[in-house]
Amino acid sequence: MKAYHSPLKVYPTSWDKKINSNLKKDWEIRYTYFCDAHPEGKIIRFKGMNNCKTLEEKQHQTRILIENEQKALERGFNPITKQYEIIDENIVSENTPFYKALEILFKGFKGVESTLTDYENSMKHIHFYSTKLGINNKEVSTVTKGDIKQLLMKMSLDGHSNYRVNKTRSHLSKFFSVFTELDIFQVNFIEGIKKLEHESAKRKIIRTPDEWRRFHSIANINYNVYSFLMIFLYSGCRFEEMAQVKKSDVELEKSIFWITLKKGGKHSRVMRAINMQTWKYWKEYCDLAGPEQYLFSHNQAPNDVPIKGNALTDVSAKYLRMVGLNVTGYSLKATFLNLVSKEHGITKAKELAGHTNEKTTKIYAVDYEEHLVEQNRKIKVNTK
């Protein structure tokens, strides 16, 4: 049955009259709520006006309470469960509660596992602070730039890093971009909220001969892991992309392989080069795998079931630490792009990584600015 309710009434019934003696009485708002769980109806009582000092204040506060309760009921609020019951969980309207609207939109977001996990982290912060500020249940169309700024300020005051606050702001901006497309807002006002100053920590990469010796010593501990790390080092890919590579995605005779690139909610099949330094490792994997098996699965061996990208991240970090390297798996990607940018330029590094702009590539090519200075130092011109 569709939920419904009786008219909201105030007791004493003469509450809106100019009867001074009513000020000292205990007031309450009452109505009956009917739903599947309570087809016979359940009486709902609530207060919130009895601390007012004057009769006029008490009457004014009562009118506000009635208005707010009616609006909540219209938006699907169940006063028994204290939850909003949305008829269509896939539709966001201007009346949808703020946090509920984010949840609905998030269900439709696409991306690699690490990206979605990052969004989930932001969602936890947004839920906590929007609830704390009382905006989680506001109609989404009534949420203001000031509300969001307050939320981000609260995060900062509670000790969250500028990076995390900026990341939450960025994720909120994506949600509000969709809200503008739905005509709930005219502009995405999140973009008008300034980012906090943040300087990313410089990535640790492999540089010295001793570090390279340690890296190659992994072959003596676990050859499968070493083979995968060598392939990953030269691939320019992400762990999530490598986890999905099947034998059928590899063309050894052409020294190419294919990945599914997931960016901006779009999936595209993209060609990548098999670097000649790693060709033999690719062949070893392909010789072991069935036609449709995933190459880099559990125990870094071919399998019918794919491994999670974060599992590859973890096992890479484990073996790098095991040989005394204070780097992560993604440090290998940064190491490769750093070397490529030094020897072949940032444009070639950008191409190998599949980045859309050089700004992203420079995050990985950590020594690029120093490389430029070194090259500029050696420039010769004819002054005769």
Question: Which features characterize this protein?
Answer:
hpI Integrase, Chain A; 9 strands; 3 domains; DNA polymerase, domain 1; four-stranded antiparallel β-sheet; alpha+beta; about 375 residues; three-stranded antiparallel β-sheet
Please explain how this structure is put together:
By secondary structure, the chain is of the alpha+beta class. The chain has 3 domains: 4-84, no CATH class; 98-192, Orthogonal Bundle (DNA polymerase, domain 1); 209-375, Intergrase catalytic core (hpI Integrase, Chain A, Orthogonal Bundle), CATH 1.10.443. It has 15 helices and 9 strands. The strands form 3 sheets. Strands 1, 2, 3 and 4 form a 4-stranded antiparallel β-sheet that branches. Strands 7-8-9 form a 3-stranded antiparallel β-sheet, with no helix packed on it. A hairpin with a 4-residue loop joins β5 and β6. The mean pLDDT is 87.
In short:
With 384 residues, this protein is of the alpha+beta class.
